[in-house]
Amino acid sequence: MRTILAFLTVTVTLFCADVLHSLSYSHFQSRKHGGVKADPRFSEKYFSQTVDHFNFNSMGNGSFNQRYLITDKYWKKGYGPIFFYAGNEGDIWEFALNSGFIMELAAQQGALVIFAEHRYYGTSLPFGNDSFNIPQIGLLTVEQALADYAVMITELKLQLEATDCPVIVFGGSYGGMLSVYMRLKYPNIVAGALAASAPILSTAGLGDSRQFFRDVTADFASVASECRDAVRQAFHQLKELAEQQDYSRIQSELALCKPPSSAQDIHQLNGLLRNSFTLMAMLDYPYSTHFMGNMPANPVQVACKTMLRGSNLLANLRDTAGIVYNSTGLLTCFDLYSLYVECADPTGCGLGFNSQAWDYQACTEIELCYESNNVTDMFPPMPFTERDREVYCSKRWSVVPRPGWLKIQFWADALSTASNIIFSNGDLDPWANGGVRKSLSSSLVAINISEGAHHLDLRGSNEADPLSVIKARKREAELITQWVEMERRRSQKLP
Fold it and tell me: Is 173 labeled as catalytic in the residue annotation?
């Protein structure tokens, strides 16, 4: 999920495990930190966090070092609000460097800013490199992550003499889901939440399993119906070659490092190609970015131009996938099994330790049973049913998923008694229709961004921003200002 949801928020490492990420805005000098360009306004710190919040016998008082980033550059000490980013499925620097709106808002409102890394991601590994072994991986749950954030907020407020400072939580994609859950579960700690591109409904098993890839397809069709048709036809040609077992031609046309030799290899190839379109739809920003890899401005438009530039559809498909997997142009061939790893998230888990963590979460609490079918979308039929998920997860992690658990635990669509949550979604984002698109009350506000891709509103201001996201950020800032004042009045017991 990109991503996020990083959560999406799903974070994906593309073709090179050490791809450098940089800011979308460049008004300050940056320095490298751990392979990622770091913002010097932030201090990187570690918080001694409880390993298991809910079982006193399992780990005793065991702790681990949880990374967080903090800046008081704009803070009105002891008075200004605290803006807390609920880290999602990746290195926390990636989210800090791609959420410039939070910093802009902090400058306006005199806020302290904290970006907290999610347990089992980045460097916040409770058991070091053994964290992804069984049973150690079992302490990777949404509930444990939320408790981490609640404890961290509470203790840091004491340490910083900020006990009277209202807390607003932010998040994008899976992080956006966590921001919703923080407001629901810890309203005593969190005064409000901005949940950007948070698919809290589809990941709770609600909605249509065909929705995600249908909406990816719709993004490309909105540029030109011929683009969608060309992609579909290219996949048909690939299918015909596979049925003929003409593997050498498939290798040649798609520049594969090795010829496929089985139905499983073709399935893997289809997944790799589909994943490239997914990423371009999610990251269809109006300017070039270095988030989850390098992406040109308006990548969906670039992809459609590539798909329609000649009669050789398979060569066009290869070059379109190369926008994602070979942005530097340095790769001479595509390695099927190193560029893309199939997992319990059909939208992709990425690579490395972070991908293992997200795969486990997709096997336990996060439901991502999305399918492509070549009828409502342009991709090959690739089902992923609850049974498919159960078989995979039992084999990979020795767990049986619990369908419906998020709905029970975190309310799903029964949100009417909640308050002070913004649900922002971009119409270009395939995750959007898995989230809340209509306001539920005066304090459960849906903001729809007509020209927005995946949590575009969290990104820093850019001269290429569409008017729709400028208006969205303005509305978000107004609501957050109101919530901060409401919380001050409540805590001071003023009328």
Answer: yes
CB-based contacts of 33: which residues, under 8 Å, 6+ apart? 44, 93
Helix (H) or strand (E) holding 192: strand 192-196
Tell me the three state secondary structure of residue 46: strand
Q: What is the pLDDT of residue 14?
A: 35
Catalytic pick among 24, 99, 124, 173: 173
CA neighbor of 409 nearest in space, from 140, 207, 203: 203
- Active site residue: 21, 118, 290, 454, which one? 454
Q: CA torsion angle for 327, 333, 339, 343 (degrees, to 10)?
A: 130
Q: What CA–CA distance (Å, rounded) separates 458 from 17? A: 25
Set 429, 455, 457, 465: catalytic member: 429
**pLDDT tens column, 117-157:** 999 999 999 999 999 999 999 999 999 999 999 999 999 99
Residue 9 has pLDDT above 60, yes or no: no
Is residue 134 within 8 A of residue 364, CB to CB? The reply is: no
- SS3 for 244-312, per residue? CCCHHHHHHHHCECCCCCCHHHHHHHHHHHHHHHHHHHHCCCCCCECCCCCECCCHHHHHHHHHCCCCC
Residue 32 and residue 40: Cα distance in Å, rounded?
A: 10
